[in-house]
Amino acid sequence: MIEVKNLYKRYDDNFVLNDVSVKFEQGKCNLIIGRSGSGKTVLLKSIVGLIETDEGEIWYDDQKFSHLDAVSKQNIRKEMGMLFQGAALFDSLTVEENVLFPLDMFTSYSRGEKLDRVNFCLEKVKVSKTNKLYPAELSGGMKKRVAIARAMALNPRYLFCDEPNSGLDPETGIVIDNLIKEITEEFNMTTIINSHDMNSVLEIGDKVVFIYKGCKCWEGTRKDILKTDNEALNNFVFATRLARQIKS
Amino acid sequence: MRLLEQIGTYFLFMKRAFSRPEKFSILYRQTMREIDKIGINSFPIVVIVSLFVGAVITIQSNYNIENPLLPRYLVGLTVRDSLLLEFSSTMVALILAGKVGSSIASELGMMRITEQIDALEVMGINSVSYLVMPKIIAAVVFFPVLCLLSIAMGLLGGYISCIAANVIAPSEYIYGIQYEFRPYYISYSLTKTAFYALIITSIASYFGYHVKGGAVEVGKSSTKAVVQSSILILLANLILTKTILQ
């Protein structure tokens, strides 16, 4: 479980996060949704420690991550996997080397054991036989799959995904979403996904947190979204005229 | 104030770069890769530039030593000392600042804007140490080799010009480059090169690592890295010359 308490982040006089408190549950896909510029990426990057917050606490199970020293933070980070918006695969390494990278860094397995793990992860995300290809030779969807394989290589307890299906067609996006949901449930991870894609929300959103102008405006399940009378959330979810007609 | 802040950030960056690596085997592997990338790949440019400069210095020295009372072997001595004292260390370092410095700054800049550096950090890896330390070690170890190569190629260039352009007799040139030779000049040249290597790689890494924005900013950081490391090389040249040759 990950919990954030009273998180604040300000750039000059502009509050990007304003008193955000929320619990993200283990074994579930927790989605942070909101309009572009609402503060969801800042929230996600604050949770993983890439952005320093001004105030507030971040808890990883029973450890207060926000107040740990650099070494203890690094130990928790070894239990994190993250899927970035652009996949963030290392250009100079092949697919195999990308997935091997965290194993090389943090394990003392034999070469054979590491390669077995790499192949297992690549098969899990259905991109086996791409081992020797470079990221530049992969499609957008394949890059995301390889990035998921790299993120799960060390069997992380926490998985973070920043807009996992941005730039993908809806069908591929759903495949990626289902893949994330499948590994979240199988390995009982705490998964936090940042998205503004309603397909994702309705497909895998076990818990949904709506961020509006830096504040937590609403939280619930994907089923609750369709029944909510929260105006900001309704404007976000039913943004098109067609969607509003269907709802009414 | 901004300059002081930048200097402070630079030293904090260097402190992170020289913190204990995650695994020494990986540091060794990365350093070997960097030696290939920034060292071995710089062989052609160093060879070409040094050959031509050696030849030109020979022709120019001969042109300027017209006094019949001065022995012709002075041409060889001038070429040798020019290469040892200044060209093969400082001028080659300025060339490498352009080639290697811009390459490092743009590589790290691209890694920053495509979130590859963030990916390293999230994995719990000290990205500065992982990315920058091997580059610095590779350059400090290998640039002196390039300096020696440049000296050898410069002298060869001078010899070729003696034969091809009929500047002076090759035997006089050979005598000149051996005349009153002080081995100390070589260690002086290598020491300067090691300092320049540190300047080039650390400044370029600093600017590349701290890129914010997109492709335009990567280009700007690359330019800044080359300009600032070139200025610092010239400043270091002055300080080191005064300190070592005093």
Plain-language structure description:
- The complex is a heterodimer of chains A (248) and B (246).
- Chain A has 248 residues and is of the alpha/beta class.
- Chain A is built from 10 helices and 10 strands.
- In chain A, the strands form 2 sheets. Chain A has a 6-stranded mixed sheet with strand order 6-7-8-3-9-10, with helices on both faces. A 4-stranded antiparallel sheet of chain A has the order 2-1-4-5, covered by helices on one side.
- In chain A, helix 3 (95-106) packs parallel to helix 5 (140-152), helix 5 (140-152) packs parallel to helix 6 and helix 6 runs parallel beside helix 7.
- Chain A is globular, with a radius of gyration of 18 Å.
- The mean pLDDT of chain A is 90.
- Chain B is an all-alpha fold and 246 residues long.
- Chain B has one domain.
- In chain B, 83% of the residues lie in helices and 0% in strands.
- Chain B contains 9 helices and no strands.
- Chain B has helices at 2-17, 24-39, 43-64, 74-113, 116-122, 127-164, 170-178, 184-209, 215-244.
- Chain B is elongated.
- The model of chain B has no long low-confidence stretch (mean pLDDT 94).
- At the A-B interface, helix 2 and helix 3 of A face helix 5 of B.
Protein traits:
heterodimer; A: alpha/beta; 6-stranded mixed beta sheet; 10 strands; B: mainly alpha
Give the beta-strand count of chain A: 10
Number of domains of chain B: 1
Our estimate of the beta-strand percent of chain A is: 15-25%
General shape of chain B: elongated
